[in-house]
């Protein structure tokens, strides 16, 4: 049995069953089917909730760039003049000369549940009838990057909702892992990569968060840390109302391969040693950077206490051999792996990742790797 392989790729998506068919007839394609949430269902099967980034085949036409937007009556195409628009990043376009950094997307993302065998070796079913798409004005440019935690007898899923109104984290809940209810916004503008710990601490929910901002302040010259985005922690009595912890979480350190940016990856799971969390770090290179997966352990009774931080030797790195068969679909200039889900499988963990912002990758890691 392979320990590292792609389980779901863009060609596996049937776009005739896409939510976007309710509104637009423009030619689209799957830019990526990636960054899947992962959980185990009551049947024992595994479930991926895959981010499908569906893009316009020709976003530029007649001197304009087009973008897909959800409305309560269906999907529409917005038109923007190409004058003053930067199209250097294939995932988005940027308006030059604006008072603030203003982006548009060349794709709209929706979430597709994909059921796997208990060992994650094969796809059992693709649940188009349970696809999760925008449902509110604050999601009208898409829903992205699901993370799933089972806490007690309920499943909790966070995702990033994108709109001109705000860029926020929304919560969905489920009683069976397959049928989801949108509970609403739980973190406001640009607080991304929110991951629920898979269990409570002192009868409270705990989560990792990653707020973004336009400016960061410097550490003292002698500090081992680099200013910039960091992984923080928060607690909640009900999973809806959150209070940040004052203790710092994971910060980028000088000299590490993650000095450009850090962010959450897989929801923390409880082990004998503490809460195990796989996170992503970014090394500066080009416009996007190199994304790798690292790991950390948080104290089981006080998650604000970091017991171990591994940020020098990557746990998972991008593997071009995995995407060789679909290399013609690659669009990112730098290696990217983004781990988004983990389940216990006895003597090893099954980790789900997005590979190259293109496909879903499964990695089996022996538990001895974390000793």
Automatic annotation (TrEMBL):
Residues annotated as signal peptide: none
UniProt-recorded Gene Ontology molecular function terms: glycosyltransferase activity
S-adenosyl-L-methionine is among the record's keywords: no
Key words of the record: Glycosyltransferase, Transferase
Record field: transmembrane: none
Domain of life: Bacteria
Pfam families with a match to the protein in the record: Glyco_hydro_130 (PF04041)
Family designation: Belongs to the glycosyl hydrolase 130 family.
PANTHER family assigned: GLYCOSIDASE
Designated name of the protein: Beta-1,4-mannooligosaccharide/beta-1,4-mannosyl-N-acetylglucosamine phosphorylase
